[in-house]
Specification:
The complex is a heterodimer of chains A (222) and B (35).
Chain A lengths: L4 H9 L6 H4 E7 L2 H4 L11 H7 L10 H10 L27 H6 L2 E7 L26 E9 L10 H9 L15 H22 L6 E6 L3
Parallel strand pairs in A: 1-3, 2-3, 2-4
Chain B lengths: L3 H11 L3 E5 L5 H7 L1
Chain lengths: 222, 35
């Protein structure tokens, strides 16, 4: 899924109070077509380094299957995720044990939410704050704790290094920076979604272990 | 929309309520592709 994952995930997480980076505790991602159909989707190579330097929020990685598998296991991507608590509308709710009352502790029960989206959570320490309307969803519960199961963005798996890149420059349809979607047509995009559904159905029970109180499945506008 | 399939599977495993928030309904796309 290489759709506009950043804003979509941010919108999905904005329902919970507080900053998205502070809400999302852990995430699991599923590499879909990059592992199943490795060569079919490789057509053009984006200029990844230029893309990465130009953008602060989005980074392109090479997704070999073993690499992403290792990311699953070692959770290297989770370093930016802070085990913080979302703010409540009442600041006393967000601090269990601050006063020690029983009523405060009942208010500050942790609601564990598993967030299921297509969209990839980027490695940002986002400074975006949620709108005041979105905080109403978090009212009534003290603390939310969200974990996300998302798709990994499928970028072109092989990017071309120096000699071949020179050849690609002069060609028509040479890769531009920011052109990460590649030449995948509509049928492939549909295949992409279907394979994500297939793989996520297979692997999600193994990836998203643990106890949850609710599952939040968000299919936002692109 | 297809994200609902793994979410259904997860609901079956976890036995917790599932909230499915669908925003990407585009009826216009049918008429747009029919042209």
């Amino acid at each position: 899924m290489d759709v506009d994952y950043y804003s979509s995930t941010r919108d999905a997480l904005a329902l919970f109070d507080g900053r998205p980076a502070s809400t999302c505790r852990a995430r699991w991602s599923i590499s879909t077509t990059s592992s199943i159909l490795p060569q079919l989707l490789v057509r053009r190579a984006p200029r990844v380094l230029e893309f990465n330097e130009a953008r602060e929020l989005r980074k392109i990685e090479q997704h070999a299957f073993l690499r992403s598998y290792r990311i699953f296991r070692n959770a290297l991507d989770r370093s930016h995720v802070h085990p913080a608590r979302a703010r409540s509308s009442d600041p006393h709710d967000a601090r269990p044990g601050a006063t020690g009352n029983d009523s405060d502790q009942s208010l500050s029960r942790v609601v564990r939410i598993l967030l299921v989206t297509h969209y990839f959570w980027p490695r940002v320490s986002s400074s975006t704050t949620s709108s005041p309307d979105s905080s109403s969803a978090a009212r009534g519960h003290g603390v939310h704790r969200a974990s996300q199961l998302s798709g990994r963005p499928v970028f072109r798996r092989i990017w071309v290094l120096r000699p071949v890149q020179g050849k690609l420059q002069g060609r028509r349809g040479a890769p531009r920076a920011g052109d990460s979607r590649g030449s995948a047509g509509r049928a492939r995009l549909a295949l992409n979604y279907l394979s994500h559904a297939f793989c996520a159905t297979l692997f999600a029970p193994f990836l998203a272990r643990g106890e949850f109180d609710a599952i939040w499945c968000s299919s936002p506008r692109r | 929309m297809t994200i609902g399939i793994p979410a259904r599977a997860l609901r079956m495993f976890k036995r917790v309520p599932l909230v499915f928030w669908v925003q990407d309904l585009w009826p216009e796309s049918l008429s747009a592709t029919a042209r």
